[in-house]
Design goal:
With 476 residues, the protein is α+β, with helices and mostly antiparallel strands. The chain contains 15 helices and 13 strands. Residues 208-456 form the Histidine kinase domain.
Length: 476
């Protein structure tokens, strides 16, 4: 017995008196039956049957007492197996890219994998789910699961600060714990923003293209019929009509290009970019590419750019498109021989980025068309493009970034655009978590400013990535 497991000795020692009592009780019972047989109370057959039954029952109880103290190998073996399975499950959960949370009594977050912590910007486990995800339908489904009710699927969407679409899967889990609250709720969040945007993008593209292309296609059809009929032999009319047809064809090409560009931007607007770019270098490249267009109208550029790189967090191609749209508009809407001023500032606070430049004129109006989430630690790179055109009346400023919106007087003629340029600028700036503002005064000109976030220090990078990701999830 020296090598016997302690748990076996602990269980066997108390059972020895029990076995002795069973044997004594069985002997006393047989003696009673024997006395009854001698006294003539029992027949020999009945005595034999009763003695056998009593002996069998006593033997069964004796065996029960002997085996009760034996060790339970399953308990000794199962415990490490279960522990290993839990460790494997936890390791697998940590690697899953889908946000998964385990919600306990009172709506407290007991477990959250890294994807969930990034998606909801969780500081630490143990907090209330309602403080990170303020969606009543999801919270109601979690409460129902904590009561042991059936799981459910909840879809919710938010429009501010960034449009997002999420499907939440809620399932009850019964935990092997004692107590009045054994139920937990498993919450899985699936981000379906990209698929929703793709569906809407296809519908919007067809609607916008069919609407905006109808006019130039009608013009082309009319000119073609005229050239095939009355103007068949009229060289002067043919040349004039072909020139107009070329202009309409170019407009349709620009319109399709802008629609595709806008669709691509909207597709990924909820995902902030992670690359870096030099804002000053982009401005120089844009000026070089548009210089022929400016020379054709005798327009000169006045540059005020820092010599050192103005690093920002962003997609270089999209930032280039922003600057190109703003400079091209400034060239188109300035009179011949005018000056287009381009200025870049680096490492500015939000207040300076939004309000630093002096006003164009005492009566000018300034409006913020898109703004970033508030963060006092964030610094920005700023680009400001000013023209010397006719200016824009203050009543039109709020609608400048709408699709296909063009101010009266800009809807026709050689400077007529597609009405999508500033909408593209706004969506790109919104994706970059930056700001976009306009200032204008009638008769003085207009100034468009964009400010884009600078890269954060390495020590704060992880926390800021969580905050940027969470800005696409509705917390309010």
């Amino acid at each position: 017995m020296a090598n016997e497991h302690p748990s076996v000795r602990a269980r066997t020692a108390p059972d020895r008196p029990r076995r002795r009592d069973i044997v004594i009780t069985a002997l006393l019972g047989l003696m009673v039956l024997l006395v009854l047989l001698i006294g003539g109370v029992l027949e020999p057959g009945a005595w034999l049957a009763a003695s056998l039954a009593f002996s069998a029952l006593a033997f069964i109880y004796f065996l029960t007492a002997v085996t009760r103290g034996a060790p339970r190998p399953s308990a000794q073996i199962t415990r490490p197996v279960v522990s290993s399975e839990l460790e494997s499950a936890n390791a697998m959960l940590e690697k899953i890219a889908v946000p998964v949370l385990l919600i306990g009594p009172g709506g407290r977050i007991e477990r959250a994998n890294p994807a969930a912590r990034a998606f909801l910007a969780l500081g630490a486990e143990g907090g209330l789910l309602s403080t990170s995800l303020r969606q009543p339908r999801v919270l109601e489904a979690v409460s129902a699961a904590l009561r042991g009710e059936r799981g459910t699927v909840v879809e919710y969407a938010s429009l501010a600060p960034i449009e997002s679409h999420v499907r939440a899967f809620v399932e009850p889990l019964r935990m092997p714990v004692a107590g009045p609250m054994p139920w937990r709720a498993m919450l899985v969040l699936a981000d379906e923003t990209s698929s929703k945007r793709a569906e809407r993008m296809r519908a919007d593209f067809l609607a916008n293209a069919s609407h905006e292309l109808r006019t130039p296609l009608a013009s082309l059809s009319g000119f073609i019929d005229t050239l095939r009929g009355p103007a068949r032999d009229d060289e002067e009319a043919r040349d004039r009509f072909l020139t107009i047809m070329r202009e309409q064809t170019d407009r349709m090409r620009r319109l399709i290009d802008d629609l595709l560009s806008l669709s691509r931007v909207e597709m990924n607007e909820h995902l902030p970019p992670s690359g870096e770019a030099d804002l000053a270098a982009i401005a120089r490249d844009v000026v070089d590419s548009l210089r022929p267009m400016a020379d054709a109208r005798a327009i000169t550029f006045e540059l005020s750019l820092p010599d050192a790189p103005a690093r920002i967090t962003g997609d270089r191609d999209q930032v280039y498109e922003v600057v190109e749209n703003l400079v091209e508009n400034a060239i188109k809407y300035s009179p011949e021989g005018a000056i287009v001023a381009i200025e870049a500032l680096d490492n500015c606070t939000r207040d300076i980025a939004e309000h630093a430049p002096e006003r164009l004129a005492p009566q000018s109006a300034r409006l913020l068309l898109a703004g970033p989430p508030f963060d006092p630690r964030q610094r920005y790179g700023v680009l400001r493009v000013r023209d010397n055109g006719a200016g824009i009346d203050r009543r039109y400023l709020p609608r400048l970034s709408e699709r296909f919106y063009r101010v009266d007087g800009q809807k026709s003629g050689p400077t007529a655009g597609t009405g999508l340029g500033l909408a593209i600028v706004k969506h790109i700036i919104t994706r970059h978590r930056g700001g976009f503002s306009v200032e204008s005064a009638t008769g003085t000109g207009s100034a468009f400013s964009v400010f884009l976030p600078k890269p954060v220090p390495d020590a704060d990078a992880a926390a800021r990535v969580l905050a940027d990701t969470a800005s696409g999830v509705d917390a309010g």
